[in-house]
Write the structure tokens for this entry.
Amino acid sequence: MEILNSSYFFPLNVGLICVLIHTKKFSSFFSLYQILINICIIAAAHILLGKDAKPWPKVGESITLWLLLCLPFAPAYPRFSWQLTFFMSTLCVSLITDLYFFLISRYVTLYLVPFVWVAAYFQIIPLNFYESIEGAVLSFLFLWSFKKLFFTFRKYDGLGQGDIDMLTYIGAFTGILGAWCTLLYACAVSLSYLPLQYIVSNSSSAQIPLGVFLCIGCWINLLFPHIYLALINYN
């Protein structure tokens, strides 16, 4: 894991940002704006982790930086720019804390759900009030039921409560279809993590930070909403 924490991440990020600045989607001001948001995410993650926070881990910050930098490519971004930025920023806080310590704080997931419902009621986000409630409740019940069934048959927890809270938050913001697509993409992406984990750490442990992949899955759903349409219309 030492190479993943090396200083190579910094020049790599700077180089790629310089490339993005010259594209039509980005400007130097916008890139600086997203980088500042990423710094706030790092600070929030370290506050939630407290004394267990690492001084400056590179992997999680690099992932969150690129999730934010690519967010303007989302079709809904022109109409809901600050809403999507805030939403993904809170998910990125959970990504960092879950990646390093398998910890997802309710302050950036479940406790924000009522505020999302209020935003939906006043049509500040793409969902209406009832769609937001439906997405949150059904997402919670689905993963909660899975957790209980898993514990009944295997006698140990196969899913953390933080993952349930995170999908509930995603369901409140994106609806039940968005939560379902997020979970589908998260499971698909996480399959590539297990062999990488074995190669890097030489461990066969199946424990994975699902919150990281839920965040990435939600990002995929926001950037490529046509994927599920192609799947359901496939003959």
In short: Residues 45 and 185 are 24 Å apart (CA to CA). The two ends are 44 Å apart (CA to CA). The mean pLDDT is 78.
